[in-house]
């Protein structure tokens, strides 16, 4: 699996839903961890501008030491955003990962 960096310089991102833990095992509730032992979470983001009317929201996976408290509707920056192609059990798609979710910088007036 090859991660491809995403140029977000001309994009803005709005939080479109609540953060959720990425679950490894639904029976135990175990949360998936990255190579550094940090728990992984997913967050739906609406990138703008966006020409995809059918699937405008992307779900981004990111690590966090604590459960992320990110307000729906807030503007954020996914630091180190990458995309990758995945394939499993006859299904496939594009996935997104980043190293952190930070508040978006305020625009100068």
Q: What is the averaged pLDDT score?
A: 93
Number of helices: 0
First-residue to last-residue Cα separation: 42 Å
What count of domains describes the coordinates? 1
Largest sheet: 9 strands, mixed
- CATH architecture assignment: Beta Barrel
How many individual β-strands? 11
Task: Assign the CATH topology.
Answer: OB fold (Dihydrolipoamide Acetyltransferase, E2P)
Poorly predicted segments: none
The helix-strand sequence is EEEEEEEEEEE
Helix content: under 10%
Question: What is the CATH class designation?
Answer: Mainly Beta
Rounded to an integer in angstroms, the radius of gyration calculated over CA atoms is 14 Å
SS strand fraction: over 45%
Q: What structural class do helix, strand and pairing data support?
A: mainly beta
Question: Would you spell out the secondary-structure blueprint of this structure?
Answer:
Layout (H helix, E strand, L loop, with lengths): L3 E2 L6 E4 L4 E2 L1 E3 L4 E2 L7 E10 L9 E7 L10 E5 L2 E7 L2 E7 L2 E4 L6
Parallel strand pairs: 7-10
Antiparallel strand pairs: 1-9, 2-6, 2-8, 3-6, 4-5, 6-7, 8-11, 9-10
Structural commentary:
- The structure is a single chain.
- By secondary structure, the chain is mainly beta.
- It has one domain (4-103): Beta Barrel (OB fold (Dihydrolipoamide Acetyltransferase, E2P)), CATH 2.40.50.
- It is 0% helix and 49% strand.
- It contains no helices and 11 strands.
- The protein has strands at 4-5, 12-15, 20-21, 23-25, 30-31, 39-48, 58-64, 75-79, 82-88, 91-97, 100-103.
- The strands form 2 sheets. Strands 1, 2, 3, 6, 7, 8, 9, 10 and 11 form a 9-stranded mixed sheet that branches.
- A hairpin with a 2-residue loop joins strand 9 (82-88) and strand 10.
- It is globular and about 45 Å long.
- The mean pLDDT is 93.
- This is Plasmid replication, integration and excision activator.
